[in-house]
Amino acid sequence: MSHVVVSGANGFVGRALCRALVDAGHRVTGLVRRSGGCVDGVTEWVDASTDYSGIAHNWPAGLDADCIVHLAARVHVMHDTAADPDAAFRATNVDGTLRLAQAAHEHGVPRFVFVSSIKAVGERDNGRLLREDDPPQVEDAYGRSKRAAEDALRRLAAETGLEVVIARPPLVYGPQVRANFLRLMDAIWRGAPLPLGGAHARRSVVYVGNLADALMHCAMDPRAAGQCFHVADSTAPTVAELVRMLARHLGKPARLLPVPTAWLGLAGRLTGRSAQVERLIGSLQVDTAHIRDVLDWQPPYSTDEGLSATADWYRSIH
After folding, report:
1. For the NAD-dependent epimerase/dehydratase domain, which residue ranges apply (predicted)?
2. Considering the domain 3-175+205-233+287-300 in this protein, what is its CATH number?
């Protein structure tokens, strides 16, 4: 049995990971900013300091962990109101991450799993599967902060011997999902026509249960030390296919309009939403061969199973 600390333990991915760890018999401490929201079996550790500014001094006496999985982050937002988004993302996602990793090393934690994002390498595949070692083509402040955090952690690992593992998921979905995926389900549930019938580019996604399983491997497997992994479902559906599968599991019709993607791209440019439109019509397929080859990892759930579980949750709250 291992002892794993999970930052952001009361969040969407954090709850799924903690549940998987507890079910597997591990001790779990949830590092959270506010008390409440952790799954049963998790011991809470509340640290309300800004960007972990007090984490080294607030380390609980006797806390002896085998690994920290760092999920807490300033997340990507559609309409950022920060005066300097790069500085705001860097303060939390780079400086805060590095403080937590340094404190982990100082308190004898041998491994630090950093949950980054596919945005740290790019948001389109340019005709070939996106690999871990591809030159970065980062497009926004969130992606830049995740890439900078990865680089800072690699330097820390080289200086201290801390075992750093980096996981880069694409869009994560599952029960309790929020943001754009939830809005998509809302639209399908209402029967709203969606101009995505011509969106045939494929997009890698990852079911939260698959991501939680992969992160457990990253935390436990000795072979993961020093590695960076892309984590995604086995299949990459088109947006149109995703809508059809979701609609089927929701018991609703898929009202897809065959609008040419060129028209959608033009509409995005005219409305200043090119980035949002690109995420619907552009291709982003990631190569997961590395985690399969190094850790013998396979997603335990198919995309259809993940969408079914997500739809079951959605129906339960409507």
Report:
1. 4-224
2. 3.40.50.720
| Residue showing tokens 């790069």 | 86
- Give residues with Cβ within 8 angstroms of 218, minimum separation 6: 69, 113, 165, 167, 224, 229, 295
- Mean pLDDT for all residues in the chain: 93
Secondary structure (DSSP) of 174-216: STT--HHHHHHHHHHHHT--BS-TT---BB-EEEHHHHHHHHH
Helix (H) or strand (E) holding 113: strand 111-115
**CA separation, residue 37 to residues 42, 49, 181 (Å):** 10, 19, 22
Give the C-alpha separation, 310 to 318, whole Å. Answer: 13
**Closest to 154 in 3D by CA, of 118, 120, 205, 204:** 120
Evaluate whether 228 touches 168 at the Cβ level (below 8 Å). yes
Residue of 186 and 264 predicted with greater confidence: 186
Q: Which of 216, 231, 264 is nearest to 67 (CA)?
A: 216
Active site residue 142: yes
Q: pLDDT of 269-286, one tens digit each?
A: 767 666 766 777 789 999
CA dihedral 109, 113, 116, 121 (to 10 degrees): 110
Residue with tokens 């080859």: 293
User: Could you tell me if 123 and 143 are in contact, meaning their C-beta atoms sit under 8 angstroms apart?
Assistant: yes
Candidates 52, 142, 207, 314; catalytic one: 142
**168, 116 contact by CB (below 8 A):** yes
